[in-house]
Amino acid sequence: MGPGGTVASGYRVLNYRALSAGDPNKIHVLTFDYRGFGKSTGSPSETGLILDAVAVVDWAMNVAGIPPSRILIFAQSMGTAVSIAVSKHLAVQEPPVVFAGTVLIAPFVDIATLVATYRVAGTIPILSPLARFPLVFKYLQRFIRDMWLSKDTIAQYIRTNELNGEDYRLTIIHAEDDYDILPWHHFELLFWHAVNASTPAGISYDDLEQKKLDSKTELGAAGSVMEWKTDNGVIQEEILKTGLHDVIMGYPVVTRAVMRMFEAVDPSFTS
């Protein structure tokens, strides 16, 4: 969930249906309120939210008895930072735990960059004018308590899986008209950090952009899809023309992303 409500707020219940729509008899959604929201007590913090999310995943595996290959980590907006951290946390432990996949909707690279680019309703800047003055903005960053360095965390997650030879799947989805997470370099930078970490020699941002031009699948009004494959993993970028920040959660693209990952692990999943 995001920081603006609870697990039962408005559109969220409908969104859960999109997650399980591919096969409601086999796909079940486990969600929870952040600390200090809804039924959860306490005060939210970066460390606390990660601990809570790890505890939820631990319950799913060790109490509900669901194997990692049948667990998909899914998140939107603020939740993407939490899910990336959890996926990395479990991938680096011994023995490593890698799930069926991770799906991120409307992610951001880190809080400092988000603050520097955020505009209310896509038009009213908050701190972005100050980003033009590096010394001033650097000083203000000292007051950011939780950094949520998703770009670094996602690189660690990918690099760890590659080194361990673990199969992994990551899908990042964003809508061009999302005025909450702007500008575009949030989405594109996160994808690049993931791809860059998947190869020993790395790849420059510009080279990846050129490869996108050569190999991405154009879907017209539906947007485009870029898939990056290694011997171990699949990193996919899906860009929709429309979907805003929250409406996209109920789109079929979400259902397809979920089903694609479960079917990759077990081709008989839908049979």
Automatic annotation (TrEMBL):
Sorted alphabetically, which InterPro entries does this protein's record hold? Answer: AB_hydrolase_1, AB_hydrolase_fold
The record's section on Pfam families has: Abhydrolase_6
Q: Which GO BP annotation is one of this protein's?
A: antibiotic biosynthetic process
Taking every annotated instance into account, which residue ranges of this chain make up the domain AB hydrolase-1?
A: 6-152
Which superkingdom does the taxonomy of this entry point to?
Answer: Eukaryota
Task: Name the chain's protein.
Answer: AB hydrolase-1 domain-containing protein
Organism the protein comes from: Penicillium arizonense
